[in-house]
Amino acid sequence: MDRKKFLLDENEMPKKWYNILPDLPRPLDPPLDPQTKEPITPDQLSAIFPKALIEQEMSPERYIPIPKEVMDVYRLWRPTPLYRAERLEEYLDTPAKIYYKYEGVSPPGSHKPNTAVAQAYYNMKEGIERLTTETGAGQWGSALAFACNRFEMECMIYMVKVSYEQKPYRKTMMMLWGAEVIPSPSTRTNSGRAILEKDPNNPGSLGIAISEAVEDAATHDNTNYSLGSVLNHVLLHQTIVGEEAKLQLEIAGDYPDYVIGCCGGGSNYAGLALPFVRDHLEGKEIEFYAVEPTACPTLTKGEYTYDFGDTAGLTPLLKMYTLGHDFIPPSIHAGGLRYHGDAPIISALKHDGIMKALAYRQLECFDAGALFTRVEGIVPAPETSHAIKAVIDIALDCKKKGEEKVILFNFSGHGLLDLGSYELYLEGKLKDVDE
Ligand SMILES: *Cc1c(COP(=O)(O)O)cnc(C)c1O
Hints:
Rossmann fold; binds pyridoxal-5'-phosphate; alpha/beta
């Protein structure tokens, strides 16, 4: 009998994160100081990040031990299950095998606490009492609020205004965990005030909210800033997903031909994919697909160049695929995929041809998410449905070619706090916004 899910015991949880930096075919282009155009020094980052994370950002070590205190919090929901999507396979009538790593079992409902917990821990250890951050759809804000609550820290969240209004329940979750949440652009910061002066109805964007959170952290001594995606250390913390998936696929007796994930800043996809990229660099044949919305087509239509991480131009310049730091994407419901850039690691792998990217429109992704819910029973976040759309297309292609391929994707989060968007979808009120 085929098994539905593959579980690891708590004591089988990987004890190390995988750092791809020493294994990359060429070194990453360094982040640059926007004024001098010289590589930034660790000192410059210490105004807003703790030493431990700055070290991880540039670490030459292939594996980095997960602190016991972080493992203790992970154990609340990790290891996460690996599922076989057998009913989806049956529905599609495909010879392909489809597996997904289900990150929706965390308290905030996504992969994001994998890094939030680690970041809160390292900050707490270095005496920081308060963290600031931005959040789009609210998943990152709720992950950091949860993590700060675990280590008894204060949490200040600048939430993109359009999401603050569209997704009120995540705001409530953040507040239940003890965080302060305000809509961005706000009047709390110089960058927020400057934007509101020009356009009082500005719907906000991740880039604007980042500017506000960074400014807040840089101007308060007891406060650091915490970023939910993009940076090397964030991707590092997410690799526990792929390390677990490898062990679980061994139990299943399979190895992936395709590794797929939705891509906003790139962290959930990197978390699943990077441990397999390591195998690929050693000769395994695997195809990697990062999936994004056509409304914010960073990898498929962006330029590979140095750009700011935020709208106001406060952050170092990162070498990445970007749509321009002043790009404000349409208000699609996959709020977590509305970032103008992408992780430098993912960008480099895409640029060097190791990864490929696909883009889909909003409606076809909701169709895929609704289909998945009907056949598999779990409601995916609108972000996750982008990965599912790609998986369905590839599984149908396998059917056409009669190929028994193994497809693995990251189910980055559940959609139970996105039912407002699904309601609009069911009522036929959702539109494709990019044409
Ligand atoms: C935040 C989020 C994403 C996108 O962010 P990445 O850094 O690209 O992973 C995708 N899915 C869910 C459920 C999210 O919460």
